[in-house]
Amino acid sequence: MFGQNGWRFEGRSFPTISELVNHQHLSGEPVTTKSQTILKNAILREQWQLRNDDIALEQKIGNVGPLLNVWLIVFV
Q1: Whether the Cβ atoms of residue 63 and residue 70 lie closer than 8 Å to each other
Q2: For the segment 10-27, what is each residue's pLDDT rounded down to a tens digit?
């Protein structure tokens, strides 16, 4: 969840999602008190997978149902 000070599950906030996930993984702390879920195995991004910074949303070109938008993208 994004709050005033950044991304967090419970407790401390982090400026990026990557920092939040890295902290949870390295600390071994439960993600939430209720779930007691602990991040044990990182799933790394494959070399062929795009990073968010690799693309820019150019123009919204449609919708697929009420929750999914279709965008024209540009590789940057």
Answers
A1: yes
A2: 888 999 888 998 999 999
